[in-house]
Structure prediction request, 339 residues.
Amino acid sequence: MRVLLTGGAGYIGAHTAVELLEQGHEVVLADNYVNSSPKVVDRIEAITGHRVRAYRADVSDRAAMEALFTEQEIDAAIHFAGLKAVGESVAKPLAYYRNNLDSTLTLLEAMERHGVGRLIFSSSATVYGTPERLPLTEEQGTGVCTNPYGWTKVMIEQILRDYTAAHPEFSAVLLRYFNPVGAHRSGLIGEAPNGVPNNLMPYITQTALGKRDHLSIFGNDYDTPDGTGVRDYIHVVDLARGHAAALGYCAEHCGVEVFNLGTGRGYSVLEMAETFARVNGVAVPYVFAPRRPGDVAACYADASKARRILGWEAVLTLEDMCRDSWNWQRQNPDGYEGA
Ligand code: NAD
Ligand code: UFG
Prediction:
């Protein structure tokens, strides 16, 4: 298939591009590089030996999308493009609603004009809000998010349900990611946050590198085995394989389907820091700090639906995640900047 990856130069998009190219698909990428680098395209091509057709375009730009869909015969789209920083979304709600909703609507309109009927959307476990029961199954209620970023995901899921109800031949797959970490084993692509990282793994890798003095562990008084927060970390390469499986599914089914993409296993912040230090033979100094507002104690997936229906499951271990994150960070201390 020829697959459009909006936001395809980003962290998850780039890994998915590699996976799809290696499986024999063609990749068309559209990114405005607001949170990524055009250098990613060269890296994807270097890893796979295949060409990527890359468009520098804002997905909210109707004319740019029209040109892309006219030039390329797209079979399916994976919509990664979006702003994703939780804290920033609280400070700049309009920017988040504008970018994330507008890009989705503009993409859907272009797809409709060009008769493209398959879409995979990057949703998030954040749509579950505070978990009622663990592990989280897809049936658990969504809504009541603690930040505008999360609300954009809930709203886009609803837009896709409404659109598919009106167009029963349309196929939409909503993938709710848990916590993606790790990098391609080549060390050529990985997560490259701007400024001080918000997320745990890049903070750990930058601490190990000496760029950050120490890791602050936000809360050690949660109701969890060691008191620190528990999350379902998933290797980004497993996540990328999940997209390839979803693509196969959406080629053969109509309607909306939701899948959790996680491992089904939770690890605490302390386990993460200690495993990272052990696997890589590096020091990760840490201090305990107050809880971070908006954080839940524990969040992990029931990943059985994706296994049952997509035939997909995560296979890479926590050790793989720690080793590959460090391999990427060491080779690219300044992300794509120094490349
Ligand atoms: P990322 O920021 O690395 O990638 C997103 C890409 O979209 C970037 O390359 C950015 O430049 C691009 N982009 C943003 N707005 C755009 C626009 N209007 N037009 C064109 N390009 C645009 O983020 P990621 O971690 O790869 O996440 C991909 C998707 O997965 C996002 O929608 C994110 O919300 C979602 N998600 C991520 C996580 C996570 O922890 N990384 C968890 C759950 C869901
Ligand atoms: N943490 C620390 N110190 C840090 C950073 C994080 O202790 O410096 C802790 C957090 O308190 C939490 C865990 O590490 O317990 C994971 O935090 P992340 O920020 O890496 O991830 P979150 O689970 O908070 O959020 C992530 C994505 C969101 C997404 C959500 C879905 O960042 O975009 O998963 O569950 F919505």
In short: The chain is about 40% helix and 20% strand.
